[in-house]
Design brief:
Blueprint: H1 3-17, H2 23-40, H3 46-52, H4 58-69, E1 88-93, E2 97-102, E3 107-112, H5 122-131, H6 141-148, E4 158-162, E5 173-176, E6 187-188, E7 194-195, E8 210-215, E9 223-224, E10 230-231, E11 247-249, E12 255-258, E13 263-266, E14 272-275, E15 277-280, E16 291-292, E17 296-299, E18 308-311, E19 313-316, E20 319-320, E21 323-326, E22 330-337, E23 340-343, E24 347-353, E25 356-359, E26 363-370, E27 373-376, E28 380-388, E29 391-394, E30 398-403, E31 412-415, H7 419-482, H8 484-487, H9 490-558, E32 564-571, E33 576-578, E34 583-585, E35 590-601, E36 604-611
Parallel strand pairs: 15-17, 16-18, 17-19, 18-21, 19-22, 20-22, 21-23, 22-24, 23-25, 24-26, 25-27, 26-28, 27-29, 28-30, 29-31, 30-32, 31-33
Antiparallel strand pairs: 1-2, 2-3, 3-4, 5-8, 6-7, 8-12, 9-10, 11-12, 13-14, 32-35, 33-34, 35-36
Helix pairs in contact: 1-4, 7-9
């Protein structure tokens, strides 16, 4: 700041403090001064500007300049070190009073130098305030004069000016747009009970989704000390947007967006992350509830009894009496017990007991399958293990060491059959039969509705004839009623009038009947229109279902099954092996055999047992 500018500011503050000019007028004069400087490059003093604007007289300008030339009071001491008291700072003393400004410059007080002394005049005190630069928050002349009129002058400090402290602001809020605590206690059911296993949905986002953003916030408002200086509000610590893996800040740094699709998570340190893998460091159970997640699920522990897991893929230690459904692979390093597992990819497991399993890919078992119902659309591989008391269907064949035991009930092995394709074909056939049935019902309904329309038209014609006859009779009776012979006979006239009224009533009833028939006819025709639309829809659905069946049949031809069971160990008697066309019941214990269906000629299939050695 140049010396000229500093002097102009001091001139203006003195003018305001002496109430010679209002602050808004001073601001206006400063704007005019800048305009003059910009246009003429002449640095005109603010006093001259205010005099030319008629805000000050020449005498007032000289008085202010004189006050401005007097020595400037010493600057108040800096704020005391933290932890120490905040002392007031004495700025100046006259022969009668002390003027004290607090260290924060928010208050100025006066007090007598000696007890019992006489107070100075109002003008002396105001001059003292002006000389010491006190220009804001000064008490009114009336209040100050009232204090100075007291005799003797009160010894306690009197506040002659009070500044305005700054108003603190507050930082913006970090608002998350996903459930930051999905593992809640449970879900309240309609009957008032609690489902402890259902913790609600795990939040899932797509790449580009908004995860969190800064909302609100207030920088605060500056204050003004008694010297007229601005006091900045306390500095606000801005809320930090912390990004973890799978997340990124927006260009304006005010939002966090998902970089990948997955599950969002608010980390303990405040970072927002997105994981394509949903990790669990313990069991899926009471602490987690049921899991439903579109991505990969990694469980360090096992799946506890009674809980369900649905996702894209799953790795876990053990599955115990649980329900598993994935669109891709499942890997279980331990066993599966008493569970239902549907894997859209491959399933790899140590052993399976008393479970129902459906696998679209291959099933790889290390040790054994016991008491299970299993369908595999790929291969069933248990090279070093055994199958005991189970029903297994495997499209691409079964490779096993042992099948059965001497004490266990026999197993049933179906090979070469595409259970998924067969199930879909069966569903298509059932859907086709249902569509054909509904189409026939619609066609029969159209015939019935058309018959009804014919009946309505016949009925309408009969009612119309009755209306015409009624109208003819009514006109004839009205003509008789107008004849001179009848009009002179009150008795006959009355009788004819009654007959005419009866005919009018009958005509109205017939008219209502006509309207009812026509309304029913309209409804029937609308129903026929809808039935024709249904027929068209059924035809389209039948065509689509036939096309789907054709595709399934073609796919079965292009990817046929492999009707083979290979057992490197023992196959116990009564084991049943079923192919697409033939089956065989093993009559005696065999070892190291290959059991396969083959075609001798276009119409003849056989089950053949050969040695693996």
């Amino acid at each position: 700041m140049s010396e000229t500018t500093r002097q102009d500011e001091l001139f203006g503050e003195i003018a305001v403090a002496r109430q010679l000019v209002a602050r808004d007028k001073l601001e206006r004069a400063l704007v005019v001064q800048r305009c003059i400087i910009n246009r003429t490059r002449v640095d005109m003093p603010i006093g001259t500007v205010m005099q030319k604007m008629g805000l000050l007289t020449q005498e007032q300008v000289e008085q202010i300049l004189q006050a401005q030339s007097e020595p400037t009071p010493a600057e108040p001491v800096q704020n005391p070190p933290e932890g120490e008291p905040d002392p007031a700072v004495e700025v100046n003393s006259s022969g009668d009073i002390d003027l004290v400004i607090s260290s924060d410059k928010l208050t100025a007080t006066i007090a007598p130098l000696k007890e019992g002394q006489k107070a100075p005049s109002l003008e002396v005190v105001k001059q003292m305030l002006l000389e010491n630069g006190i220009a804001y928050g000064i008490v009114s002349d009336q209040l100050l004069a009232s204090h100075l009129e007291k005799k003797p002058m009160p010894p306690d400090p009197f506040v002659v000016a009070r500044g305005m402290p700054p108003q603190p602001g507050h930082p913006p809020e970090i608002r998350c747009y996903f459930d930051t605590d999905p593992m809640r206690i449970g879900t309240l059911l309609e009957d008032g009970s609690m489902d402890w296993k259902n913790r609600g949905e795990i939040p899932q986002v797509m790449a580009g989704d908004l995860l969190a953003e800064k909302v609100g916030g207030d920088p605060g408002k500056p204050g003004t000390n008694v010297l007229g200086q601005e006091i900045a509000p306390p500095r606000i610590k801005d809320a930090a947007l912390k990004c973890g893996k799978g997340a990124e800040r927006s260009e304006d740094a005010q939002r966090i967006l998902a970089k990948i699709s997955g599950t969002p998570k608010l980390e303990p340190d405040g970072r927002v992350s997105v994981f394509s893998i949903l990790p669990f460091q313990s069991d899926i159970g009471i602490e987690t509830g049921n899991i439903d997640f579109d991505g990969h699920i990694e469980v360090d522990g096992g799946i506890s009894s009674g809980y369900s897991v649905r996702g894209k893929s799953l790795n876990t230690r053990e599955i115990q009496n649980a329900t598993i459904e994935t669109s891709e692979d499942v890997v279980c390093f331990g066993g599966v017990y008493g569970s239902t597992v549907k894997a859209g990819g491959h399933l790899k497991v140590s052993h399976i007991h008393n479970s129902t399993v459906e696998v679209i890919g291959d099933l790889v078992v290390e040790k054994e399958i016991f008491g299970c119902m299993i369908e595999v659309n790929g291969r069933c591989l248990i090279d070093e293990g055994k199958i005991i008391a189970s029903k297994i269907a495997a499209k691409k064949g079964i490779q096993v060491k042992d099948v059965g035991t001497q004490a266990a009930r026999p197993s049933e092995l179906t090979v070469g059959v595409d259970f998924k394709n067969e199930r879909e074909l069966k569903a298509c056939r059932e859907e086709l039969a249902d569509l054909e049935r509904r189409k026939k019902e619609a066609a029969d309904a159209i015939v019935a509705q058309k018959t009804l329309i014919d009946q309505l038209e016949t009925e309408l014609g009969k009612v119309a004839q009755d209306q015409d006859g009624c109208m003819v009779q009514k006109r004839q009776l009205e003509e008789k009623l107008r004849s001179p012979a009848i009009s002179k006979n009150p008795e006959k006239s009355s009788l004819l009038e009654e007959l005419i009224d009866d005919l009018a009533t009958k005509y109205d009833a017939l008219d209502k009947r006509v309207q009812a028939i026509m309304a029913r006819d309209d409804r029937t025709r609308n129903q026929i229109t809808q039935l024709y639309a249904d027929l068209k829809k059924f035809d389209q659905q039948i065509t689509e279902t036939n096309e789907k069946m054709s595709i399934l049949e073609e796919a079965a031809k292009l990817d046929p099954g492999i009707p083979v069971v290979k057992a490197s160990g023992v196959v116990y008697n009564k084991t049943v092996v079923i192919g697409p066309h033939k089956k065989i019941i093993i009559s005696q214990e065999m070892q190291g055999v290959r059991i396969a269906e083959f075609q001798e000629d276009p119409k003849q299939y056989q089950m053949k047992i050969t040695s693996l050695r």
